[in-house]
Each structure stands twice: as structure tokens, then as C-alpha cells.
Amino acid sequence: MKYDIIIIGAGLGGLTAGAKLSREGKKVLVIEQHDRPGGYATTFNRGDFTLEVGLHEMYGPSPGDVETKIFNDLEVFNNVEFIRLPEFYRFINDRIDITIPHDPKVATERLSGLFPMEADGISAYFDQILKPRKKAADNEQHDTSLGEFLDSIIHSEDLKLILLGNLGYYHDDPYSLSLAYYSASQGSYFTGGASFIKGGSQQLSDHLAAYIRNHGGEVLLNHVVTCTETDGHKVTGVLYKRKGIRRTGILKAMADEIIANTAMPNVADLLPAEHGSALKSELQHQKTGASLLTLYFGFNKPLKELGNKHYSTFIYDRMVKSQKGILENNREDFTSRNFTFIDYSQVDSELAPAGKSVGAICCIDYLKDWENLDRKAYLAKKEQVASVFIQRLEKLIPGVGNIIEYHEVGTPATLKRYTFNPGGAVYGFAQTPGRKIIDTSKLPDNLHFASAWGKTGGGFSGVIYSGYLCAMHILRKRS
């Protein structure tokens, strides 16, 4: 079968690209190895509960966001409901308990009240993240790390930790995270607030997949691409097969353009030797980002009834005295590792029936601590981790252990299994200061990338933007 565009992977980047290209009349085939579209933008059901795989919040959508234009173009707002979140996050350690609002003026006042001697540093922080492009232009700023920037403007380590409360949204270490990348994303939370998708992120993924189909495209699930075919300096098509069936036949599809919505290291293995080696050479200096461990909960009552008042709570352990201790803590035992708790009952999430609720604990984690365990040891470790975090959650919300109806642990190995991402990475390549842009000039000129592993980085907004930019590039090229 011949198509205009074949897309390898149905994550948000691939779905966004496919939706835009289908809308413009292109014949699109999306091939996805999972049984549902969305990548990390998916949900799964356990009894009464809909459990959210990846979305805790996304910034905006607000009038100034790129996503707003994209969502209007692809009729997202007509089919997907976004619920505004009441606050940015609550930060807790053994010394401080503070809630950070989305309003930057109120946030500045609250932080300055707690740290009056740091008023100038707080002002400099918000000036940086609210106007990152202007700051870079005015100062001819060389990209530095977030950690170095905070050290240059703030003395109080506790204030730095508060500002780094949601660091896990981006990376595992402030000293190797690009200030420019962080500023653009973090600033959007303060300028446009944040939202959760009612019913879970699967609603968005399903809409985009349906949009592709309704505009004449195909979204093929439970199939895996095994290799690409090339003719000179062009990719002419892909070979793929039904996933999980040993004696399934190899299928073939041809296209004028190929979009990879899968990890770049995986793409290198799909290409012929010459092109695969060229891509691997480009990727050797890229650092794969961290993964996450998630403990999913189903509760037999809303946590608001136990007195919890916050949607996102970031708990930092007492051992973390400065931002230099964050990376070290990410390798600590789970009894003292920093973690995040999300209480979806604080909004009308529609993830549980009336009278029940769902929540999730997340922390930075790494595949190497899980991949060499045998099955018995792996399951035992998961339950041990669950027990530890339930005890820690009990200290945060007394009585919570008595209302847990269901729990399940997802590890970096789980993420790798369902996404094929190396290391179970959630944000693609780490956004390090001055990260080298990958040169694709030695690759086939009709091979394109739309994922967290490209120029725009990870997170829901990053991959949506990546997919849309990719589609626009192809449309301009073909016109």
C-alpha cells in the first residue's frame, strides 16, 4: 500500500503530525506497537478506577500558548475538556510548608514574605522565567545551568529548593538542566496557569487518532515496525508485523515521507547500516534523560474527606539541604527519596466514580536498578516500594492507608516495555546547557522526527509542538 506519509509511533508527537497532515488532505498511516494511541498520554482501567499514566498537569492552554493555536486547528477544544488547576504546587520539607500559586505576583509576595532578605533574587528569578527570550537578547546570555543561575542570585538554600520543587517535570539535576529550556517551560506555568484533561490524557490521544481516521488516515495498533527500506538517499517505506504473534507475516507499506515518533536511538536500528551509523554517531554525545517510578492509587473515598487540600504536593527529604543534594537523593533508598503526590480528587477529573478517587506518587528513578532482577525479585521489590511509600503517604495524610482500595507500581522497566524508550526515559534526551542540535543532513531527506527526542524536548507541550512543526515542514516541502 502506498501512502503520502507513514508515521512510526502514535505518541502525541506522531498523532499531532498525523492529524495536521490528514487535515490537509494527505494520506497518512500511523503504526503503533501498543494497544492504544498516546504513548505516555494514555490511561488504563483497574476496576472502578481510571489511572493516568503520565499527565499530572500541562501548562495553559492560554491565549498566548502555541498549543492553543494547534488545538484550535485540530478541533481539540470541541472534543476535549481542560480543567484549570487551583494552584501550582505545595512544597514540604522538614523546615518549610508553602504553597506556590500560578500568579507570579502573588508567588513573589509569598516568597518574599518568607525570605525578605532574598527579595532581589526572587525578582531576578521571575524576571528570567517570565521573559526568557528578552533576557537572553538583552544580555547576549550564554546558556548556563539552572543550578548555576540560582546560585548566582539567591543565598538561601531552602528558597532554591522551593523554586526547584517541580524539577522532576524536566530533569533529575539542576546543575545539568539548561536554564533557557527550563525558563521557557516554567514561565508558561506562571503566565498561563495549568490544566488537567477531564477523563485523563487518553481523551486527547483518542481524539487525535479519531481525527486522523475521520480525515482518511489509518492508525494501526498492536503492530511494530521492524525496519525501513531505502532507495539511495530516501526512505521508501517500512516493514512491519503484528506484535506478539510469532508466525505473523511481514507487511510492507510505502510512502513519500517517513516520520519517526519513536526514540532516535531506536530509529538508528531501523535504518540501513550506512544511515544507522551516521545517526548513532550524532547521538553519541546526547545524554538520555531520567525515568520515573509511579505508584498508582484507587481510594474508596475522596482524599478531601481526609483533609487534603492540595492537587500537587512535592515532598523533599530532610537530607536534602541544598540543590546539590537533589541528584544524590534521586539515588537514595525509597524511604528517603524525594517524591510527588497528585490528588486527582481536587478537581473534577472523572477518573473515579462518585464517592471514590485516584492519586499517584511519582519519583525520579533509573532503569538500571530494575532491569537485571528476575521476575520474583522484581515483583517483590515493587511491593516493597509500595509499602514504603504508603507509610510515607500516611504521614502526609493520616488515615490514607485505610482507604486504599487498589495500588499498582509502574517502574522504568514498565515504561520501557510500553514505549520502547531507552532507559524508560520520560523526556527524551536530557536538556543540558548548550545541548548540541542533532545534524540530520547525512540522513535521508524525507525522514523526519516528531517526538521528545527532537529539538523541542519532552513533556506534553514539547511533543505536541514537535509534531505540528514536523507536519508544517512537510507541507511546505511538498508544496
Structure description:
The chain is an alpha/beta fold. Strands 1, 2, 10, 11, 12, 13 and 19 form a seven-stranded mixed sheet that branches. Strands 8-7-15-16-17-14-18 form a seven-stranded mixed sheet. A three-stranded antiparallel sheet has the order 5-9-6. Among the domains are: 174 residues, FAD/NAD(P)-binding domain; 84 residues, no CATH class. The model has no long low-confidence stretch (mean pLDDT 95). It is globular, with a radius of gyration of 22 Å. The chain is built from 15 helices and 19 strands.
List keywords for this structure.
15 helices, 479 residues, 7-stranded mixed beta sheet, alpha/beta, 35% helix
Brief sketch in words of this structure:
With 479 residues, the chain is of the alpha/beta class. It has helices at 12-23, 66-73, 104-114, 119-130, 132-139, 146-153, 157-163, 179-192, 202-214, 264-270, 273-283, 325-329, 375-396, 412-419, 459-478; strands spanning 2-8, 28-31, 43-46, 49-52, 58-59, 82-84, 89-92, 97-100, 194-197, 218-220, 223-231, 234-242, 251-260, 291-299, 312-315, 339-343, 357-365, 404-410, 447-449. The radius of gyration is 22 Å and the shape is globular.
